[in-house]
Fold each of these.
Amino acid sequence: MSVYRAAQVATASGPFEIVERDVPEPGPCHVRVAVEACGVCHSDSFFVDGALPGVRFPVVAGHEIAGRIEALGEGTQNAWQVGDRVAVGWFGGSCGHCTPCRQGDFVVCPNLKVPGWTYDGGFAESVIAPVDALARIPDALAATDAAPMACAGVTTYNGLRRSSARPGDLVAVLGIGGLGHLGVQYAAAMGFETVAIARGGAKAEFAKKLGAHHYVDSTAGTSVADALQALGGAKAVLATAANSEAITSTVDGLAPRGELVVIGADPEPLGISPTQLLMSGRIVRGHPSGTAQDVQDTLAFSVLQGIRPMTEVVPLDEVAEAYRKMMSGAARFRMVLTTR
């Protein structure tokens, strides 16, 4: 039997080690994907550290997967073929029988299948994935670009397109890092009057290169809320920064019936009072990633608009350094592992 290499963590918060495993055959309604690239996401730390219930060690993390189908399980042949280019993101499949699934809201399935949590992820040369997790990758998109878009891309793209904002509205993106640098590009391409919010004046030029029409320095004398109101108030704020204090600072910058869309994860509570929301009819909501179809839409829109993630690409053998760089915030802006 042939083997493949995987980067596993044997114990919670333990070191990465490259191991060889026997190549498995896909079961019914599953395919085996030859991984070409896999992004390293901050959410991978939930699994590496054993911070979520049900994590079983050894763990193979990685939920930003791009590759080609190399084997088909029973019941998949009508929709997929060997050689098809596919991406698998945070949405790694759903149960299909819970109430949200029966209502068609698959991404909030309480039994959501996440690569690296429910099954082995993409820090490997091969992965078995259910067919409902597969998104087609356009020919014009490299695997190293498609991989981060299966999580970071779809989360920002979908968060914006499902907001209440419409072309011409003022939309702010809080943070221009791993998520935000994509969020600014998508916001501008969707026709929003785009505001980038970040710390320090030195990032203003970079924000403009990404497509922002305005830049707000959150460390300046004027508060973020006042700066947004001076521009007319934001119809939507996409909060990509994982900082509850920074997220809270944008609320009073929302226009009447404006919407705060939270995608940056911080365990600390938001400091928002009901009175900030009531009189102006403001909305605060969390936004989780997106389905395989949402990923496919994200990839297609990115090709159409020439949007790409900024990546640092390294081989699978350097997974430990890539993970360290991502966790330290030194990555500019998405670390991507390659296997071929």
Amino acid sequence: MANEEDAQGQSPLLVLGKIRGILECFAPENPELTLPQIRRATGLPSSTCQRLVQNLVREGFLDRTGDAYRIGLSLVRMAAPGVHGFDPVRQIQPFLDELRDSTGETVCLYVRDGLYRSVVGLAETQHVVKRIFALGTVAPLHAGSAGKVFLTYDEDAWHDALEQGLSPVTGHTITDVDEFAEQRAVIRRRGYAASFEERDIGSASVSAPVFGVHGQLVGVLGIVAPVQRLTPEDVPALASLVVAAAADASRAIGCPPALLPGQPPEEDKDRTEVAQNPAQKKAVHTTHDTGQPEGICAVRDAPSGATWGRVSHAFFRAGRLHRVLAGTLLRRVGLYPGQEILLMLLWDEDHRAQADLIRALALDASTVTKMLQRLEQAGFVTRAASPTDRRASIVSLTDAGRALREQVADLWRELEEDTTTLLSDEEATAVTALLNQIEEGLQERLAGDRGTDEPPAGTAESGGRHNASSC
């Protein structure tokens, strides 16, 4: 089928995307569809839709009875081996790792066990100050953002919790049934929940649902952080990443895209957790003498230890928010922060050895290998053995990978504009010069510690300036 389209000058990747779109129209609640229904669901031109459906019938991927089509038994037979040994937690783990990398915070996957929830998947933050979690950690179902997601999307869990009673875990736990019911409506509309110290004093979290093959709730995915690093003002940007990761996890275990809830509504982004947690009702947009919105790097919100290193604390706050924003923008084209840096290296010089990319990125080999695997699965790069050294792998761009260049360029321009929105051109130039000076000083310090002139990870010589822009 791909060759037929190739003859007309269309990319095989585009054809596969159209075929996938046709197959994903079918669901347990819509097992049979007519050709007009398929055409409306996919938005494909009539001639293209008809030709592809005919080809799918001929290959046995669809069966036809009269005017109705359904998934073919040949496709069902080919899919059967995929369920043997299928481990949903293992399938979801890469998305936990990527969300941890894009937010910098601990990410957990929970499943329900009666009136409790247990951690079955985990990607821990690299921060020294963190909330301690371990596989098997158990928490009450009604306390915290993950619990609120369970009680929103699982009616049996909600009724069981009401029968048991909403007992307080901390002074911030929601125990009023009417208030909790109002929050359920908000969570369902937004597609995520956030909480502050409802289960654990000093802890905040943002969580979203993970759905199974029939659109049923099978788990909850969320990030957890100290309240000093996760404030109500951080929720909108983080929620977008959490919801997207949960949607990716749902698709990875077979949930049809049509059964996934939408992204958080734009109109809710400035209200965020204030509506969900009345105990946090401080005005998000009010300002103090600093002229800054509350919670955004304001001196009064910083821990006392921030005075030990004002520049370092400013780096931490700005860098974290910058990385979250970069992750939100890159999600538009199916990338995570850091992946675009690797692609930039290939856009400058295609067909590079994997070892060369590892050196240029100044990252450990396992990190780059995982990054390449994800890009390869997304269809943006290919890897092949070197013709001169069979032990070496050559990484090359696909047509889809090359086509990303202009899109990423536009996203980085948008990121740059957002980053420097409060700076004049002169100030932006001065900040860049100062950051270069800081980078040079850190590079010299790290090189001295190592006793070598080799540039450390993340330096400009190794492509680290790009990495700094994605932190």
Amino acid sequence: MKQKKLTELTDQELLQEAKKVKSTAIINAVLIGFLIGIVFFSVMKNSLGFLTLIPLFFVYKLINNSRHKNKELDNLLKERKLK
């Protein structure tokens, strides 16, 4: 299935996408907590090494992607006066 751009969505689809973003935020928070826990355990068990930095990279990517998508969605919702 081909993904539509956010600007091509109808008002109803845009509101559904906003609901999906909220549930995705909860999942991202759980994953970030889990990855931070792995880093903490790794530092306590061993020392700071290359393998410890890999989960930190994934945390960065999760945070960065969600911020960008949220900002774009919020701008469209405000533009269409749906929120």
